[in-house]
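Run folding on both entries below.
>entry_1
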Amino acid sequence: MYLSPQDYLFHRSPMLLIEHIETIAPESVTCSVALNSAQLAPFLEPQGLPAYFGIELMAQTVGIWSGYQDKCAGRAAAQGGLILSVRAFEAQQPYISGPQDVPLIITMQKLMQDRNYASFEGSISQNEHTVATGRLSLCQLDAELEHQLGFSA
């Protein structure tokens, strides 16, 4: 059993988009959120959720993986992260739409990790149909990196 997404992420409402954690493994993570959830309600348009939100759903899913790994290792949770690059993000439609109560399943697989930097690829699906795929490179912030980037005093 996992804690809630906010226990692993820096994000808070309204920018916390993940509703549930399904599984976390050493090299992968799966989370979910329904289109009719409170998390996505502020961002829905009449056509559905703009597909570009898929990038943030993927990034937050990776953030949950990272936060979980930190907690398991007894490390302090990171105070955020940065999306360094998005490669090969492809959405099947400009909007993610479908049954409002059927969750979007976000699955990410780690490709590589070197200290604070990692690359993951994954997909978003609904009803076992892929709605988006992509590869993200991310950086987990720590106090030293925040200082180097000028984010802290």
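>entry_2
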Amino acid sequence: MKNLVIIGAGKNNTFIDGLNNGKCIFNITKRNVAVTIKGVTIRNGKSNSDYSAGAIVTSGKLNIIFSRFANNTATGNFSGGAIYTNGILNLTNCEFTGNKVTNVNSQGGAIRCYNNATYITSCNFNQNKVTGTNSTGGSCIYTESGDMILNRT
């Protein structure tokens, strides 16, 4: 298994800005990859693809700690505003603010999970939203065919 660790100087000091360019910021396609992100703000990601997200798309194992996701947008069908995952997702002490999905089939304003395991501990979700004529909900989180454990969230 390959591992990648990104450590910032804190979510108020380290910014990864997608500049709303139409593609997700990180796309982790390998299942045998573990990525850990700590102490950053990931903002202004925008994806126009289906089954995507503004900030991160992952099929591997993703651990995010003490980080913030702000103002990320997805416009493709079946997407998540900040994160789309069909891998293992662990979130601890994270904030999701102002993320959104805008399309006909909006799902998961902050996070869309599909056929995966998701663990969320001590995270805050504020002003995330989904809009669209066939929106099936999940202004914060939309889960389909997976397991989710929430703790102090």
